[in-house]
Design goal:
Length: about 500
């Protein structure tokens, strides 16, 4: 006689089930598909999950032989072995759904014995692992894709730990910098860059930590054969589950040739500016030279001590004026390697205005400085001569836009986030809307004597200083160029 088993519910209330009922409950509640096949390979029992996995109803299955359904060839041998008492666990295989879809299935086979220990059927337990397998396949494809990318790209990819030590380097480093990946593993970022680049890297890395945004860094790297190359590198943070920077990945490339080309363009633009300013500088020097000539004759013709002192004082002042003009002109003319240093914005603007003063006089233009007091305490980490070249470009364009004379206004405004905006506003003819779209295009110019590199070079220099440039213009009312830079 079958025994009964109490199953307790709330407050010790219980419901009594016999074994057959318990088996039904188990088969209906389990998350796995279960079927029982008799010794003649006929289905004698399936549960609801089995029908859900394969899409057949009980009526379509019960009483039919398993050979009537699509199965791998190996299943026949497994069933025969189970009938001999063997067990098979978690065999990963593929089966077809009723609608023709291919499923990934984990299946276990066990012999089903009666109370006498005789095998009377085979139990098969199925679990649909299609989603899991697809995820693994996708992960494997992704990993393989990343492997192919990192092994075949010319870009140099590195993965750094939080302590700035290299934990992965792509094979492209051997061709790019002459180091095999295994030579780089374990090295610190400071082992690869030049000593003078450390401060620049620290500044960029601090921005990476503070903002959590990728940063662009141009840095000089040492190669395996002791050469130096220019590298442009994007540094991207990788966050953990606590949203903390756990490591970071860098993607760099050799831009030495591009840097040389950029330098050549800068020099070409700089020489063009110098040529166009030469007449103004010559005019500005001619005036004090005339004074020097006149007072030298007076000095020679008088014996009055007081008059001699007065004439010498005037001569010295004129010589100082010439010296200042020539020095400012030469600072623009001399070679300009990009070396960042701390420099006051006020001194850069003041020097720029001095360079353009002769040009402004020739064109009856007055340069008016506004809010210079705000610039007194602003220091930039910059290349002063490069910024001077940019500002000279803007002021020269403003002067030339006013053929009948006028005013150029220079504004300095502090913004939030350690940013400063320098604006150059003229009262000139303005720029037509159809021309605005071409501004900054190399060798595009509206001037008879221009070479079309001024704005192109200026924009490049500003970008290298982590800044932005914006041009606003209205025909007949003038043009304003706004430059935003980060100060320290």
């Amino acid at each position: 006689m079958a025994k009964s088993f109490p199953i307790f519910g709330k407050e010790n209330e219980s419901v009594v089930y016999n074994p057959d009922e318990l088996i039904d409950l188990f088969l209906n509640c389990t998350a796995d598909g279960i079927c029982i096949v008799d010794m003649e390979n006929r289905f004698i029992r399936v549960n609801g999950m089995y029908t859900k996995i394969f899409g057949y109803t009980e009526e379509e299955i019960l009483g039919r032989r398993f050979e009537e359904f699509p199965n791998p060839d190996v299943v026949n041998g497994i069933i025969s072995a189970v009938k001999q008492g063997e067990f098979f666990h978690d065999i990963v295989t593929q089966r077809y759904h009723k609608d023709g879809r291919l499923l990934d299935i984990a299946v276990s086979y066990s012999p089903f014995r009666n109370v006498a220990g005789e095998i009377i059927a085979v139990i098969a337990i199925y679990r649909d692992i299609t989603e899991h397998i697809n995820t693994e396949r996708e992960l494997k494809r992704t990993r393989e894709l990343y492997r192919l990318i990192t092994e075949n790209t010319t870009d140099m990819i590195k993965l750094y730990s939080k302590d700035k030590e290299i934990i992965y380097a792509s094979p492209s480093h051997e061709k790019g910098v002459g180091f095999k990946p295994e030579q780089l593993i374990g090295q610190n970022v400071y082992d690869l860059i030049l000593p003078e680049e450390k401060e620049n890297f620290k500044r960029v890395y601090q921005s990476l930590i503070e903002t959590g945004e990728p940063q662009l860094l141009q840095v000089k790297l040492k190669t395996g054969d002791n050469k130096v190359i220019d590298s442009e590198t994007t540094i991207t943070p990788i966050f953990n589950e606590q949203n903390e920077v756990e490591c970071y990945v860098t993607v760099g490339r050799d831009v030495t040739d591009r840097v040389k080309n950029d330098d050549a363009l800068r020099n070409l633009d700089r020489l063009s500016i110098i040529g166009q300013l030469a007449a103004g500088v010559a005019h500005e020097i001619r005036n004090p030279l005339t004074s020097l000539k006149g007072f030298s004759k007076l000095l020679k013709s008088t014996l009055d001590k007081e008059k001699q002192d007065n004439y010498l004082s005037i001569i010295m002042n004129e010589l100082d004026r010439i010296d200042m003009i020539v020095n400012e002109f030469m600072s623009l003319a001399k070679p300009q390697a990009i070396q960042f240093e701390r420099k006051g914005l006020h001194s850069i603007l003041d020097s720029t205005v001095n360079i353009l003063h002769p040009q402004a006089l020739l064109h009856n233009v007055q340069i008016i400085n506004h809010d210079y007091n705000q610039a007194n305490d602003i220091e930039l980490l910059c290349s002063p001569n490069q910024l001077k070249q940019v500002f000279v470009n803007f002021l020269k364009n403003a002067i030339e836009s006013m053929p009948s004379g006028g005013n150029v206004h220079v504004y300095v405004e502090k913004l939030t986030g350690k940013r400063v905006q320098i604006s150059f506003a003229d009262e000139g003819i303005g720029i037509d809307s159809h021309v605005m779209g071409y501004l900054g295009t190399p060798f595009y110019t509206t001037k008879d004597k221009g070479i079309g590199l001024g704005l192109t070079v200026s924009n490049k220099i500003i970008q290298e200083h982590n800044g932005t440039m914006k041009i606003e213009s209205e025909p007949g009312k003038g043009t304003t160029v706004k430059v935003q830079l980060t100060y320290i």
